[in-house]
Write a sequence for this structure.
């Protein structure tokens, strides 16, 4: 399950960034991927649809959100958390 | 070039159903934002808005009218009746041919779209009411104003998202200034507070769940509102000759496009529009005592707008006042500039500056006098009204006290 979440999130980010999944590194930031605010909002929407979860994210206070978007690894961990909470 | 004055005003919003009540709310710093009362509210993640309270169309319109009027048209007509009554103008004779209507709305009959999509998609019906199209079209409100008051000159609707009303009023200003029209009924209206209208905005993740706090460090997004404001823009000589009560003079207007991003604002685009309105109005920066801000309460807008004001006004930026009344009535999207023009008129006519309410904590990136929480009595001689729309379209009006 965990591997699936990771692979799917990377797939979503890669599609938004117009990159190959193999070029996405865990430490990459959204800036590294060239994702702007609209790209981020669209990625979050795709993640919500893929896992049937609600991602708590307000573009006005990205830093305060409990959904950590500081790197690819952080986003994957946050999605894993939301998916496991949904399963529980 | 003709001089252009405002001789009538009317409005309805979450604050009141008329100008008097709205200005009283501005003075008191009263908040019209609260829990939404709409169908399927529980399925929305954003459940607050600046909703018109106690709206009963049966009081104002007959059955035949109601089946043709979406709520955005109803709001428009109510406000237009108030404005035209105040102006004292009668368009039944020649004046009707020399006068027009230019209104702003971002989305027109959203409630009509919403209700009828439900009918065909959710309820699975294969038939809708015959008046769906004439009810939802963006120009319906302008056309009904022209019909009710016999306005037979240029009549059209401008749609530039959150700048719609300012673009409409700018156009009306140009039409009177050029001599094309004696009078133009102008302003704007919006009524998007329905399930589909709010759901669409939720998607962008720029909405606040609790309050609209423009310029405050603690701001967390915009809050939608609904309603309308309508004005009569009139040739000054025409108004003076008939001894009309003049509310204010419109002296300048400028519009620019960022040509940059579809949602992110640009400091440079905003600054060019502000500077352009000053130039067009023959104003020096020091003449401006008050700016009604676009002030949406989003992180991006408020920061960018303050930087643009600082850029244009230099040291005078620290001496002028700038407030966002969206903190009280919410963001009326295409109708917002019109409702906000009332705060400009109040500043010029009554010497009262409407506050930015729900203000909690200073933001170093918005370090201007935002008139936090309490209205202020100050005489000002010129004011600006800013509107900066999605799509990078900026429209700024400049007004002076009545001549």
């Amino acid at each position: 399950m965990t591997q699936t979440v990771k692979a799917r999130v990377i797939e979503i980010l890669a599609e938004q960034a117009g990159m190959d999944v193999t070029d996405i590194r865990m430490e990459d930031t959204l800036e590294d991927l060239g994702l702007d605010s609209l790209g981020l909002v669209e990625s979050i929407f795709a993640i919500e649809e893929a896992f049937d979860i609600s991602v708590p994210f307000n573009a006005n206070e990205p830093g305060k959100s409990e959904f950590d978007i500081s790197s690819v690894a952080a986003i994957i961990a946050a999605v894993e958390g939301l998916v496991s909470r949904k399963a529980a | 070039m003709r001089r252009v004055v405002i001789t009538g005003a009317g409005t309805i919003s979450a604050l009141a159903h008329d100008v008097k009540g709205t200005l009283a709310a501005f003075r008191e710093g009263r908040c019209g934002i609260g829990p939404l009362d709409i169908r399927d509210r529980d399925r929305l993640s954003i459940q607050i808005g600046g909703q018109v309270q106690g709206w009963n169309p049966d009081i104002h319109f007959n059955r035949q009218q109601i089946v043709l009027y979406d709520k955005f048209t109803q709001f428009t007509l109510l406000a237009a009746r108030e404005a035209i009554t105040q102006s004292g103008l009668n368009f039944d004779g020649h004046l009707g041919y020399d006068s027009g209507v230019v209104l702003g709305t971002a989305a027109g009959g959203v409630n009509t779209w919403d209700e009828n999509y439900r009918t065909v998609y959710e309820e699975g019906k294969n038939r809708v009411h015959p008046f769906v199209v004439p009810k939802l079209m963006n120009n319906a409100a302008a056309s009904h104003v022209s019909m009710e008051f016999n306005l037979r000159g240029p009549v059209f609707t401008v749609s530039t998202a959150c700048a719609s009303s300012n673009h409409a009023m700018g156009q009306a200003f140009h039409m009177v200034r050029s001599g094309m029209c004696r009078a133009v009924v102008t302003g704007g209206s919006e009524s998007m507070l329905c399930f589909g209208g709010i759901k669409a905005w939720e998607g962008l993740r720029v909405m606040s769940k609790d309050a609209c706090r423009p310029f405050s460090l603690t701001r967390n997004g915009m809050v939608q509102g609904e309603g309308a404001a309508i004005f009569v823009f009139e040739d000054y000589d025409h108004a003076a000759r008939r001894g009309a009560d003049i509310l204010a003079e419109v002296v300048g207007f400028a519009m620019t496009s960022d040509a940059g991003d579809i949602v992110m604002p640009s400091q440079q685009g905003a600054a060019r529009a502000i500077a352009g309105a000053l130039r067009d109005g023959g104003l020096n920066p020091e003449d401006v005592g008050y700016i009604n801000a676009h002030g949406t309460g989003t992180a991006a807008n408020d920061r960018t707008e303050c930087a643009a004001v600082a850029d244009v006004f230099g040291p005078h930026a620290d001496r002028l006042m700038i407030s966002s009344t969206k903190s009280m009535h919410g963001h009326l999207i295409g109708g917002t500039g019109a409702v906000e023009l009332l705060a400009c008129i109040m500043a010029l006519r009554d010497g009262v500056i409407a506050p930015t309410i729900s203000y909690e904590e200073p933001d170093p990136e918005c370090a201007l006098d935002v008139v936090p929480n309490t209205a202020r009595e100050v005489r000002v001689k010129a004011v600006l009204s800013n509107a900066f729309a999605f799509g990078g379209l900026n429209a700024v009006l400049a007004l002076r006290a009545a001549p």
Observations:
- Residues 45 and 55 of chain A are 8 Å apart (CA to CA).
